[in-house]
Amino acid sequence: MQPRSPAQNTDAGHVNLFSQLNATCLSMEKQLKIEVFAVHENKKSLGVHLIRFAEQDDGKVAEVHISVTANSILIVRLGVDNQEPDICKLIPCHRVAFSLGAMDTLDVKKIFSESSTEWNDWHCTNVNGNLNMEAVRVIMDNANSDRTLMFSPAVNFPVDFTHDKAFQLKKLDCFNAQWVRIEQLLNIRGAKEITLRRTNLTVSEMNRFLRHCLESREQVCETARIPVAQGPIDLHALMNGLVFVADNNMEARMRGIHILLGCSETDVRSKYANVKIFNECITSEFFTGNAESPQPHVVEILELMKREKRIRREALRVN
């Protein structure tokens, strides 16, 4: 596809931007391709939202996606070697996201070595190519509680994979998660969302995880989507040690979806879990207090049930 002229898609401000960009690119060792799509309005500021790295027919490229408005995106394609920082200096970056295709480990190291300077506030990395585990470890080395990591089905983790910072994230979405152990889940703190697509976890381990989330002093995570290795799921085994009420939503049940609202039998903290079970997948949303509950009246019922169990335990001790 032939690049469109900036004048066809932009106003004077954008033309000036591309004059600068062309001047910068032409001074580099490699000739760069620039493609511009659908930039319509004059805005005072531009921000880089996504940088996509991948091997393509014409070699290694990076796509820089610049959001101007909700319906207006500008795309710049350039060679990957040592040139992204120049683009970042030219166009102010804020909250950059990376999308990584099939790449050499050396290229991954180059990208993330720059994150301490030009891209120090990147917030999301989506891995779409089958990187080796050394490259994956480089990415996870940069994890923190404000960042998101996503690993597509192309990434084949060995079952013995481990990394100290694998769950020290705002969000983790991992397709091949057979490497995840219950001990790792129990060490999660302050995550917003954990999504695993395939695991070797059991129902009893997921019961342990649910109880841990509900009884922990700290917030473990807000939402967890985690399947067990094999179904069907025994609801009573999953909710063992918890007080719970099943939602009587017949439409959901007809589709094979079970919805439960539960809390700890013994813990005094007002923590609750909205648990949805479909096939082998367990989706849990954790909240505190009646004000955050999707069903406040059910929370009141749970508290009455918990109080009844406590009275019965005390009566047994007296007898």
From TrEMBL:
InterPro entries from the entry? F-box_Sdz-33
Q: Name one Pfam family in it.
A: FBA_2
Tell me the domain of life: Eukaryota
Sdz-33 F-box domain boundaries: 169-215
* Cross-referenced PANTHER family: F-BOX ASSOCIATED DOMAIN-CONTAINING PROTEIN-RELATED, F-BOX-CONTAINING HYPOTHETICAL PROTEIN C.ELEGANS
What name has this protein been given in UniProt? Sdz-33 F-box domain-containing protein
Q: State the organism of origin.
A: Caenorhabditis remanei
